[in-house]
């Protein structure tokens, strides 16, 4: 395994999370959840450390991380964009909204812009179907958006 | 005693009674009905069973149930009525296989597993003549390690490799990753196998039903060497090859074809047909002497001496302890494996005898092993970049070579190996079976230790197929405790006991593959029929019994080699030529902070 570039604080935090779950192999998913919530993503070295703490192979942890779409190995952007592709939003054209975000930023779903500002993900229903189509940037909800508005919305975060 | 509960059921109109908890697959097998399987893989008696029930090839119809049931993962119940080949079943099986074929590369003509591929066999047995589904094709890159080639575009997600890598070997290099169409068995972060903790034991290759995992093919290099007039090409064959290669030519598992194999090698054009068994006898001289030396010092109270001494013949095992037990690197014997000892002797003693240069000799080994391909590429086994053993072929590759040279194997006469490096004793032959190395060492060590003649050379207490075995051998009043493990998971169990100080052993033998080399990854594919390995195992001991000499130190050519060239076992020259050292490879598995 590779030598890693994690700082001591981060290593301790991850060890603490594993220990809080009894360093049990069966707790892998819960541990990954908590670590991702803490650090935003699960890079290879973090997975290796977790694997060692709970005595499973790194391949096993990587298998879990790549199976569940919730887990990500890429850091999210400073302003994570989530476009709703639930039924109501979808029929009101949210796919076009998503495409416009992708086009404006030049990245795909699950990716982050090189400057680390934006990342794009999609989700299924935020419970605001009356506002369809809906997109979230961070915690802020944008409703009834049109493709023309995408550029202006992004501009709000450019500074 | 608790009575075993029995269950009555009907399979294809036949009544059958089996124990509660039996699967439909095994109940059917008990009355001679073979339900086709694909993901199912069992190493019977070794506690290894892969039955994720995911391929759905073994589905059967159970009366009263709406859905078809996977026979490998469904237990029988009282009064069950099972149909294994109703129209519904046959159609479902066909659809399942067709779907698998729809994204499987249609490269059967040139695939390494062609003719031995279980998916191909199934497609034939089900009479599939065209594939009605058209779909996407996977586009993973090929991954080449020194011993194993992974072509996961051919992976059918049966998980057999994952099970042997994790459960049998506890290596943990492989896992199922990704999901849906992208799902595949891979290493952590889909890095190269060579960078993963893989120990190259190759049991994944043995288990893979298709061409997704195979050994790296070195037959072309060997053919080129044979056709190079400047080269003297020497071949050596491991003990386990002679009891298995017959299977590649339709012979019953366990058929001993030592003489035919030597004849075939001579017809292929090797200049000298020698035997790794010679070097196995040499290994016993070195390892046995080292073992007695350590035991002697230990008994005299020398605290610096490390016991147990562990065997070091098996390259998968060497990789394993270098990776997982870096704090125990001083415990294994420093003796090189028989293959490497042979190479070292051939490229020193034998080139001197022939009066040729080392660079003009090519040493080829025929091994039941995939990891040997890596072992012969290790830097410490090279002199000025020239390896002691140039190429290592598996038993399967030798069979291919024999076929390529249109040699009719079965009608060959029995021939002998060439001397001097082809002479061996029965002690060398049993290196091919679990427990054999330590039994061979015991035969010699007993006589050296006690100064008495060993009348009964068979140590039945050291033989068997149990994964971990322990025995005490009486050295004329001195009890010698011996541990034996085959399969790396079993080795781990034994080693952990030693590490925790729970048990004391004088000596431990470990073989990476189940059954020892007879069950090696380079042997003919057994497709989960472990009785084949058991028959090879029995044949090894028959071969031993038929040998006129059965103790390594009685091999006259070994005695001659020491007299003419080496001097004493573990002496200066022997140490230089026949011993090695080990490396800490724990960075492959341990989390190391920069």
What are its keywords?
heterodimer, A: 159 residues, alpha+beta, Arc Repressor Mutant, subunit A, Glutaredoxin, 2 domains, 7 helices, 43% helix, elongated, B: 594 residues, alpha/beta, Ubiquitin-like (UB roll), Alpha-Beta Plaits, Rossmann fold, five-stranded mixed β-sheet, four-stranded parallel β-sheet, globular
**Euclidean distance between termini CA atoms of chain A:** 40 Å
Neighbour order of strands in the largest sheet of chain A: 3-2-4-5
The interface involving the most residues is between: A-B, 24 and 25 residues
Low-confidence stretches of chain B: none
Question: How many domains make up the coordinates of chain A?
Answer: 2
**How many structural domains in the coordinates of chain B?**
3
The portion of residues forming beta strands of chain A comes to 5-15%
Write down the oligomeric state.
Answer: heterodimer
Return the CATH topology of the largest domain in chain B: Rossmann fold
Shape of chain B: globular
* Biggest sheet: strand arrangement of chain B: 2-1-7-5-6
Give the topology, please.
The complex is a heterodimer of chains A (159) and B (594).
Chain A: E1 3-4, H1 8-20, H2 28-39, H3 44-53, H4 58-67, E2 79-84, H5 87-91, H6 94-105, E3 118-123, E4 135-137, E5 140-142, H7 150-155
Parallel strand pairs in A: 2-3
Antiparallel strand pairs in A: 2-4, 4-5
Helix pairs in contact in A: 1-3, 3-4
Chain B: E1 6-11, E2 14-19, H1 24-30, E3 41-43, E4 48-50, E5 59-62, E6 69-70, E7 80-83, H2 87-102, H3 118-125, E8 143-144, E9 148-150, H4 160-168, E10 175-177, E11 184-186, H5 203-207, E12 213-215, H6 219-226, E13 232-237, H7 258-268, E14 272-275, H8 276-299, E15 309-310, H9 315-324, H10 338-354, E16 361-367, H11 372-375, E17 382-383, E18 386-387, E19 391-394, H12 395-404, H13 426-429, H14 436-450, E20 468-475, E21 478-486, H15 488-499, E22 507-511, H16 531-545, H17 556-566, H18 572-578, E23 592-593
Parallel strand pairs in B: 1-7, 13-14, 13-16, 15-22, 16-19, 21-22
Antiparallel strand pairs in B: 1-2, 3-4, 5-6, 5-7, 8-9, 9-12, 10-11, 17-18, 20-21
Helix pairs in contact in B: 8-10, 8-14
């Amino acid at each position: 395994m590779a030598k890693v570039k994690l700082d001591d604080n981060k290593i301790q935090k991850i060890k603490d999370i594993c220990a809080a779950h009894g360093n049990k192999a069966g707790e892998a998913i819960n541990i990954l959840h908590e670590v991702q919530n803490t650090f935003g993503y699960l890079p290879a070295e973090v997975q290796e450390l977790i694997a060692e703490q709970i005595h499973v192979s790194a391949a096993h942890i990587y298998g879990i991380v790549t199976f569940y779409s919730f887990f990500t190995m890429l850091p999210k952007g400073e302003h994570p964009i989530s476009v709703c592709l639930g039924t109501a939003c979808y029929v009101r054209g949210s796919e076009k909204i998503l495409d416009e975000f992708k086009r404006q930023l030049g990245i795909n779903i699950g990716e982050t812009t090189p400057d680390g500002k934006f990342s794009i993900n999609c989700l299924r229903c935020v419970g605001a179907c009356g506002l369809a189509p809906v997109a979230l940037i961070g915690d802020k909800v944008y409703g009834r958006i049109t493709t023309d508005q995408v550029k202006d919305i992004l501009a709000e975060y450019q500074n | 005693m608790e009575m075993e509960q029995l269950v009555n059921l009907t399979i294809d109109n036949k009544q059958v009674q089996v124990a509660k908890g039996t699967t439909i697959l095994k109940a059917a097998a008990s009355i001679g009905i073979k339900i086709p399987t694909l993901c199912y893989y069992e190493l019977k008696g070794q506690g290894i069973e892969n039955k994720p029930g995911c391929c759905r090839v073994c589905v059967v119809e159970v009366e009263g149930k709406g859905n078809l049931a996977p026979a490998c993962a469904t237990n029988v119940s009282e009064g069950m009525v099972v149909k294994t080949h109703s129209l519904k079943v046959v159609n479902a099986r066909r659809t399942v296989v067709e779907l698998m074929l729809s994204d499987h590369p249609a490269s059967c003509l040139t695939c390494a597993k062609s003719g031995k591929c279980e998916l191909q066999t199934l497609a034939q047995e089900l009479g599939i003549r065209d594939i009605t589904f058209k779909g996407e094709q996977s586009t993973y890159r090929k991954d080449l390690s020194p011993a194993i080639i992974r072509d996961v575009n051919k992976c059918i997600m049966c998980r057999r490799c994952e099970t042997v890598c994790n459960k049998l070997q506890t290596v943990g290099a492989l896992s199922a990753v990704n999901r849906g169409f992208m799902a595949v068995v891979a290493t952590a972060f889909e890095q190269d196998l060579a960078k993963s903790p893989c120990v190259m034991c190759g049991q994944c290759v043995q288990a893979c039903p298709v061409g997704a995992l195979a050994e790296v093919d070195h037959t072309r290099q060997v053919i080129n060497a044979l056709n190079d007039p400047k080269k003297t090409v020497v071949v050596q064959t491991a003990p386990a090859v002679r009891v298995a290669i017959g299977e590649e030519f339709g012979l019953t598992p366990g058929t001993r074809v030592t003489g035919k194999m030597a004849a075939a090698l001579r017809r292929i054009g090797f200049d000298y047909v020698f035997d790794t068994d010679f070097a196995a006898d040499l290994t016993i001289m070195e390892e046995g002497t080292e073992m007695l030396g350590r035991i002697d010092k230990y008994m005299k109270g020398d605290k610096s001496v490390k016991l147990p001494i562990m065997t070091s013949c098996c390259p998968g095992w060497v990789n394993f302890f270098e990776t997982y037990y870096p704090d125990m690197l001083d415990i294994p014997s420093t003796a090189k494996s028989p293959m490497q000892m042979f190479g070292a002797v051939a490229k020193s003693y034998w080139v001197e005898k022939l009066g040729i240069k080392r660079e003009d000799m090519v040493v080829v080994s025929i091994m039941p092993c995939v990891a040997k391909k890596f072992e012969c590429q290790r830097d410490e086994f090279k002199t000025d970049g020239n390896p002691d053993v140039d190429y290592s072929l598996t038993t399967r590759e030798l069979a291919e070579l024999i076929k390529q040279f249109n040699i009719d194997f079965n009608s060959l006469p029995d021939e002998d190996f060439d001397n001097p490096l082809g002479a061996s004793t029965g002690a060398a032959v049993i290196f091919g079976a679990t427990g054999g190395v330590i039994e061979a060492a015991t035969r010699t060590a007993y006589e050296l230790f006690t100064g008495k003649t060993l009348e009964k050379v068979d140590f039945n207490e050291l033989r068997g197929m149990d994964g971990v075995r322990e025995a005490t051998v009486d050295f004329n009043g001195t009890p010698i405790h011996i541990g034996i493990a085959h399969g790396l998971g079993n080795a781990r169990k034994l080693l952990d006991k030693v590490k925790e100080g729970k048990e004391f052993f004088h000596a431990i033998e470990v073989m990476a593959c189940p059954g020892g080399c007879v069950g090696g990854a380079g042997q003919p594919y057994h497709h989960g029929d472990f009785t084949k390995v058991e028959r090879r195992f029995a044949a090894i001991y028959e071969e031993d019994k038929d040998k006129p000499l059965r103790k390594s130190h009685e091999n006259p050519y070994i005695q001659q080699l020491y007299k003419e060239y080496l001097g004493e076992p573990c002496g200066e020259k022997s140490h230089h030529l026949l011993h090695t050292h080990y490396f800490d490879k724990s960075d492959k598995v341990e989390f190391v902070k920069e």
